Amino acid sequence: MNLTKLARDRACEIRVPNECLPTRETVVLCHARIMGISGMGLKVSDWLGAFGCTRCHAICDGREGDWITYPRVLRDLMLLEGTARTLAILVNEGVILVPDIEHRRPKLNKIVPRRLPHL
């Protein structure tokens, strides 16, 4: 499935406050820039992308916006939140299939305190 095409006519999930464009025509798949996952000659997978309008995309990439208002850590957080919302949408729509495996923590044996020897 081509997620870049699937991003067309979607709502922006990055949602930069007071900057996000209300039109769905500008929404594209925005990829995160994470050391070790992406870089020179290494493109990040589409599964680590967020649906984002051109304005939010430009701010998260650092091409637009004020560096004081949007420091790197805040831009990364907004993109990460958008990626999480996008993944939730894709799971709910059945684009990403997640097996129904019940994850339980292993049951721990009852811990009995050790008795100290009498001196």
Description:
The protein is mostly helical. It has one domain: prophage-derive protein ybcO (Erythroid Transcription Factor GATA-1, Chain A, 2-Layer Sandwich), CATH 3.30.50. The protein contains 3 helices and 2 strands; from the N terminus they run αββαα. It has a two-stranded antiparallel ribbon with strand order 1-2. Helix 2 crosses helix 3. The longest helix has 21 residues. The mean pLDDT is 84.
Low-confidence stretches: none
Largest beta sheet, briefly?
A: 2 strands, antiparallel
Radius of gyration: 21 Å
Shape: elongated
Overall number of strands:
2
Structural class: mainly alpha
What's a concise summary of this model?
With 119 residues, the protein is mostly helical. It has 3 helices and 2 strands.
Can you give keywords for this protein?
single chain; 119 residues; mainly alpha; Erythroid Transcription Factor GATA-1, Chain A; two-stranded antiparallel sheet; 3 helices; 2 strands; 7% strand
